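Hi R.,

Here are the chain sequences for the assembly we discussed:
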Amino acid sequence: MADPGNGSEGQARTGEAGDSQRVTTAKQAPWLGLSIPVVLAGTLWFLPAPAGVDPAGMHLLAIFVATIVGIILKPLPMGAVAMVGIAATAMTNTLTISQSLSGFGNRVIWLIVLAFFISRGFIKTGLGARIAYLFMALLGRKSLGLGYGLVATDLVLAPAIPSNTARAGGVVFPILRSIAEAYGSRPDDGTSKKMGAFLTVTAFQGTVVTSAMFLTAMAANPLAAELASAQGVEITWVGWAVAAVVPGLVSLMVVPWILYRLFPPEIRSTPEARDLAWDHLRKMGPVKRSEWIMLACFGLLLTLWILAGPLGIHTTATALLGLVVLLITGVLSWDDVLRETGAWDTLVWFSALVMMASFMTELGLIPWFSETMGGVFGGFGWVTAFLGLSLVYFYSHYFFASNTAHVSAMYAPFLGVALVVGTPPVLAALVLGFFSNLFSSMTHYGTGPAPVLFGAGYVEVSDWWRLGFVVSLANLVIWLGIGSLWWRLLGLF
Amino acid sequence: MADPGNGSEGQARTGEAGDSQRVTTAKQAPWLGLSIPVVLAGTLWFLPAPAGVDPAGMHLLAIFVATIVGIILKPLPMGAVAMVGIAATAMTNTLTISQSLSGFGNRVIWLIVLAFFISRGFIKTGLGARIAYLFMALLGRKSLGLGYGLVATDLVLAPAIPSNTARAGGVVFPILRSIAEAYGSRPDDGTSKKMGAFLTVTAFQGTVVTSAMFLTAMAANPLAAELASAQGVEITWVGWAVAAVVPGLVSLMVVPWILYRLFPPEIRSTPEARDLAWDHLRKMGPVKRSEWIMLACFGLLLTLWILAGPLGIHTTATALLGLVVLLITGVLSWDDVLRETGAWDTLVWFSALVMMASFMTELGLIPWFSETMGGVFGGFGWVTAFLGLSLVYFYSHYFFASNTAHVSAMYAPFLGVALVVGTPPVLAALVLGFFSNLFSSMTHYGTGPAPVLFGAGYVEVSDWWRLGFVVSLANLVIWLGIGSLWWRLLGLF
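And here is the predicted structure of the full complex:
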């Protein structure tokens, strides 16, 4: 159920959280899971192309649908399914080999791949843990404050760690567990609600929100941006961040408080937590050279990403620079880069999906679907139609075990329909993009960190779902309410 | 001194040969090795562009030269240097970010990356070792026969294992060492010449020749093909193999015999080697399901590569199919693919070099160089001029520690000059391609397997160089003599 695209691979190397919690994939022969996509593709293959759609478009649709179903059923890991999809486009002559491989040179894909490499530096240097202990020392007098401290850590790391599994599972979770255990709260002996359960749901719901706040905070965000770009809607790093900052910060304030009310920890006052944090910080000693470099590199990235427009430096060029700085200063070794398997995994599945999506638009499928569906929704006016579309998009995540699978299956057609009914393009692309993260609040399998944190055993599945549903409502109210006012102010509609 | 491009990374995972022999890279700060390329680039940057060359071309030349010098001086591993080069093209606005990343979608690069993945199957299933023991059982009655057996193993694996380090270091070397030790020949106690020294040089010179025989037998071969393609000369998989088969097989017959004459093992009759091989084969048991699949996949690859033209299936599409077969049947796991760091390393350095080389042609640099040098060499007639060019190309390998560095620095300009003086294009591209492998016979650092096999300690450096020079002459006589007759027959000139 883990989402490899959100870095369960990368997380596997973070050690503490990874080894005990890693969700293993089934080992049996993948024949059944493979046969469903194959039969599906075989059927779609022979459907006649509607007017305006290239005949090769139907073949590509067949391969695309089979790939998405394969990603959902997981007869093989997502990357392997993607590789089968790429091979299918080339071997059937649906696309030329150069077209089949075109995704691998995509600049947005490399933004994420490079961010995966850079984020390794936060974990390797210990800077991520230091930030977490610092927030704990500052905010940790009460258990609600501890929750806010974990969320703040996640927020600070979010712009440069696109694997939310690495953030919440790799950096935050080990510290969460050590605090909970220091207060005698363990998963299996009836003490889980003392502290651990509350911190777990808070850290999880926190990373769901921080993932929505930056283009580079979750692996599938740039996929959404790229799918939007294929329909002529350009989303920049700074455009995404500015639109998300107000509703995002409100969510980060409100959600832990809601969880504290509905699911309170038995221990509420935690004066010793601050001493614990200071102890850890003392043990870590002064900030190391490698941490200073990591911090400077992070500052450089944020500065150049924010100033990308005026300076004319592409976001991906900045990420290249960031990696080069870490390599030259020796903060990362080339071996660290080569062994960052989560990055290579992302390169493969992302390239397959972006390649297929862009040729589906080019061959006329997405425009045809949008026109057809737009005719159905057109009677309502764009506000009602878009609200309906985006709520369907949101709650259908109960059926998905990965943000990436959901985004690749539904983002492009839903955006297409939203545009046809007259939704302002950037607004439509951004809201669907934000929802592509917020919808993971609901289940214990919907995004990479969910199975990691749920798997720790502090929280019952019924609590997870109940709280998840309440948080989903809260997020919708905040993002559609306060968010709309903010976006109006920004002139997005 | 190891050549990461030829798979020292991949080889590191093969275990037996890797752990003890791995050449470690320097750990000190890379400032000196970095400053030379930087100063060089800074100087070239401000040179005026000659007529017909785009001003951006000089900037690209500066970055390219700095990258090549960086690959030779190795202040950082080759892949990291390549990443710095890519970043430099993008950050200086010499190229757009999409141009800078364009190499990553190149189909010839993916042919090699995919072949790296597929070759893991030979090692993982044990099929490679089984083939080696089989040849040993068939040919191993005398030590010369054992040498031929090792070479035959290397030849059989060559079409699908583009890392000659993985072939000679990962598959052949562990078996070589176990035979030598069975005959009491060890590196350090005066027994090296009993058997081990002869087998080591034979295996090494064998892999040098097999590397020259297939487009997919050495990582830099497709780089040569791609550089030729940029100058309008197309080399196919089957075209390369057909042109190389006759001189290649002659070399594989003659070279071990020469080594046997000049550097004879003290033990010449080895009847027990066959029993040893049969023992190993018995211990391996019947051919496993995974080995059968690997064998079938290998047959499929060779068939489709040979029939690529008539069937209209691109070589890279076939390689995709091969990987998919291994993934679906479970011979390789997706994790095997992600952990094949040699492949990802190759993807990065290869993409950087191909990207720069193709834009150097596009921006007018290679045509300008070829025209200028062609004027100098033009007076001689193409036979003399090309002979001179190719011998300079060949023996300049004394100054290179990697096939890839040599090919990326010298192949394109030398081919350009050869074409200007009137050498038949395909002949010129192929001969320089073959020489890009054969020239590694001479030193103990010139190609990936050299430091691995030399590092085992069986052979003195003076013997290595003396024999290497003799073999280089033998290969030149065979390839230029018998080769020329064969190429004439094929109509290449």
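Chain A has 25 helices and no strands. Chain A touches chain B through 47 residues (CB under 8 Å).

Let me know if anything looks off.

Best,
T.
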